[in-house]
Amino acid sequence: MTSKPSISFAKPGTPKKGSIVVFSADDGGLSDAARANDPAKALDRAFPVADFNGKFGGVVEVLAPEGTTVDRLVAIGTGKTTALDEYAWLKLGGVVAAQLRKATEMAVILDIPGVKVDGAAAAGVAAGILLRSYNFDKYKTKKDNGDGKDDDKKPAKITIHCADPAAAKKAFADAEAVVGGVLLARDLVNEPANILGPVEFATQAKELEKLGVKVEILTEKEMKKLGMGSLLGVAQGSVRPPRLAVMQWNGGKAKDKPVAFVGKGVVFDSGGVSIKPAAGMEDMKGDMGGAAAVTGLMHALAARKAKANVVGIIGLVENMVDGNAQRPGDIVTSMSGQTIEVLNTDAEGRLVLADALWYCNQRFEPKFMVNLATLTGAIMVALGQSHAGLFSNNDELAERLTASGTATQEKLWRMPLGSEYDKLIDSKNADMKNIGGRYGGSITAAQFLQRFVKETPWAHLDIAGTAMGSPSNEINQSWGSGYGVRLLDRLVRDHYEG
Predict the structure, then answer these.
(1) Which residues contact 66 (CB under 8 A, 6 or more apart)?
(2) Is 287 within 8 Å of 268 (Cβ atoms)?
(3) Active-site residue among 55, 153, 157, 276?
(4) CA dihedral defined by 71, 78, 49, 62, rounded to 10 degrees?
(5) CA 182 to chain CA centroid, nearest Å
(6) Beta strand residue intervals within 89-234, DSSP E
(7) From 297, 323, 377, 399, which residue has the greatest number of CB atoms within 10 Å?
(8) Among the listed residues 215, 217, 296, 218, the one whose alpha carbon sits nearest the alpha carbon of residue 249
(9) Distance separating alpha carbons of residues 23 and 31, to the nearest angstrom
């Protein structure tokens, strides 16, 4: 991957080389610190020519500005200063990163009239720079910078000039830990399926031990002994064996019950015997977006030393077409003892999660469980790609998740559950079937999962529209978005740390 920029913090100054970024609000203009870096008032002349009025994300660039020795002077609009919230600082960092181009040195003068830019705001800008700078070019033998030439540019050095560099540096330590989790999740989703199988994914999870996470990897033999017939049925058509990764971060009090996160990790989904159409099947390398988010979350929590006990469990399988693959009409027995009639082998994620959720609940007795899965196309029909679907049996947990989604702008929309939907997955031949018909597909999938959580507070996040192929924005230009890491880190931070 492209090397990420190095970021440092300093008091406001007047750098003599490289590129300089300043900010202009549409209700305040340039600050004195910004004007000190534009002695010839080049920006004052450029603003009307470029029709620049300080609108959020607007950019004006002056090359070789008069009266200075710097290469470029860039002004970025902040919009109304009253709207500069947590997510706005993150987005401004993304806009800054977009201006890097070939620059190897950049100074960001983070000073805005009428705004107290505290350490958290400066750290947010820095985090936004790192998130936007991500580029999955691991498999390109030549790094093309747009001019057809091989680009071996060194990582950019960015200095953020702000009022309190010490506070910014302290806040950035936490922010960088979370960014690291997001980028890990993006890497996992972007990896091709021939490289990242269940065993390789489990190895990536095992790497978290370097951060102090306890990691156990259950093999096919151990899962058979536990009776995980639902998960194993999905895996039986692939030559690549399944794995269940169990990650524990014990940063809270010893006697406190953990909170738990469970992820669907279908490293490639052909649909099995109920095979998918060929068009777009390559995107099914991202059908492990839920497992990627859980792994990224565990990285974030451990890297920032979260004061909480957290369990992350990911079920890792490949769903393939093979002479040994399970057939439509097969009946499998889950770890819970409940039987499932598999009417469609492409409704496989819920079969993986059924055993993972039951195992998690039985072994750890958590305060709550949240599972994440790229589960249904139906959720994209309902919500598009701006919200993930939220299903829950607990109002408090649902409200906290929604609030965390609003704060991070990894947004959720609560969807219904109910007995009228539940009966749609009753089966004549087994305890349940794995599909419920044409209508309400995301809801019947959630109803299926609810049968494996007992009375434990639980939420299911259907992230099919947000984890992969989601629209580009100021902080993400990647096919794999890393959705869920910032959301769930915020949930833990706000409500479950001692």
Answers:
(1) 40, 42
(2) yes
(3) 276
(4) 0
(5) 5
(6) 105-109, 157-161, 214-218
(7) 297
(8) 215
(9) 8
Active-site entry in 264, 304, 350, 486: 350
Q: Which amino acid is at 438?
A: R
What span, in angstroms and rounded, lies between the C-alpha atoms of 300 and 182? Answer: 8
pLDDT at 498: 81
The single-letter DSSP state of residue 2 is P
Query: What is the Cα–Cα distance from 161 to 66, expressed in whole angstroms?
Result: 22
DSSP SS3 for 392 = strand
Q: Which residue, 119, 296, 109, is CA-closest to 213?
A: 296
Strands 432-433 and 339-342: parallel
pLDDT of residue 152: 62
**Helix, strand or coil for residue 76?**
strand
Cα(353)–Cα(334) distance, rounded to whole angstroms? 10
Tokens coding 463: 């992230």
The pLDDT score that the predictor gives to residue 145 is: 55
Report residue 281: phi and psi, to 5°: -65, -25
Q: What letter would DSSP give residue 269? A: E
- Residue of 217, 205, 185, 97 whose CA lies nearest to 463: 185
The CA distance from 2 to 151, in Å, is 10
Q: Scan for tokens 């979350």, then name that residue.
A: 297
276 in catalytic set: yes
Q: How far is CA 486 from CA 281, 336, 404, 413, 497, in A?
A: 28, 32, 9, 17, 15
- Residue 27: what pLDDT? 72
Are 317 and 269 a contacting pair, CB within 8 Å?
Answer: no
Q: Give me the count of residues in the chain.
A: 498
Cα–Cα distance between 168 and 465 in angstroms, integer? 34
Paired tokens of 74: 């860039």
Q: Are the C-beta atoms of 35 and 171 separated by less than 8 Å? A: no
Q: How far apart are CA 404 and CA 308, in angstroms?
A: 17
Closest CA to 261 of 275, 274, 247: 247
Residue 378: HSE in the Cβ half-sphere, 13 Å Cα cutoff? 16
- What is the predicted pLDDT for the residue at 117? 96
Q: Which residues of the chain have pLDDT under 50?
A: none
Residue type, 52: F
What is the C-alpha separation between 79 and 367, in angstroms, rounded?
A: 42
- In 10 A of CB 497, how many CB atoms? 13
Tokens read off for 222: 């151990």
> Considering the entire predicted model, what is its pTM?
0.97
Q: Is 24 helix (H, G, I), strand (E, B) or coil?
A: strand
> Read out DSSP for 131-167?
HHH----TT-SS-B-SSSSB--PPPPEEEEE-S-HHH
* Exposure on the CB side of residue 42, measured as CA atoms within 13 A: 21
The share of the chain scoring above pLDDT 70, in percent, equals: 97
pLDDT at site 150: 54
pLDDT at 29: 87
490 is catalytic: no
